[in-house]
């Protein structure tokens, strides 16, 4: 199965809303979840997993095992939507998941808060900027 591709935050939300088997996997760090916030899918039966792609010690060697522990099985064709801060880590995670047989696997463009803008700040694009539900952890 090839990598499924990129989704805008709105498209990701719509897929999560329309497919009860779809899972959102936030691959940011624990520090990011706690200081910046997380997507809030409680209105959609909260199908979110939090699995760090990179830990403070480096790449997460248990990433695929933790993905399986979240209820996914290779080959089950359950949509998996990966999200990070700006879309870099999540696209890498989506490719790794695809190679391991999970998915279809998608990346959320611009992530949770997007790249740094001309003003030196994030938050001009991504999940938060698009007005999608989020909460503090």
TrEMBL record:
InterPro entries: Rhodanese-like_dom, Rhodanese-like_dom_sf, STR4-like. Pfam families: Rhodanese. Residues 18-124 form the Rhodanese domain. PROSITE patterns: RHODANESE_3 (PS50206). PANTHER family: RHODANESE-LIKE DOMAIN-CONTAINING PROTEIN 4, CHLOROPLASTIC. This is Rhodanese-like domain-containing protein. It comes from Cellulomonas rhizosphaerae.
């Amino acid at each position: 199965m090839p990598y499924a591709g990129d989704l805008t935050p709105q498209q990701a939300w719509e897929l999560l809303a329309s497919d009860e088997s779809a899972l959102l996997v936030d691959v940011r760090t624990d520090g990011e979840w706690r200081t910046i916030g997380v997507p809030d899918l409680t209105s959609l039966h909260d199908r979110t997993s939090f699995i760090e792609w990179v830990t403070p010690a480096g790449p997460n060697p248990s990433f695929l095992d933790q993905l399986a522990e979240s209820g996914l099985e290779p080959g089950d064709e359950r949509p998996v939507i990966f999200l990070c801060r700006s879309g870099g880590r999540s696209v890498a995670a989506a490719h790794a998941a695809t190679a391991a047989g999970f998915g279809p696997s998608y990346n959320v463009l611009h992530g949770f808060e997007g790249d740094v803008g001309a003003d030196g700040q994030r938050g001009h694009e991504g999940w938060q900027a698009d007005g999608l539900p989020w909460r503090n952890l």
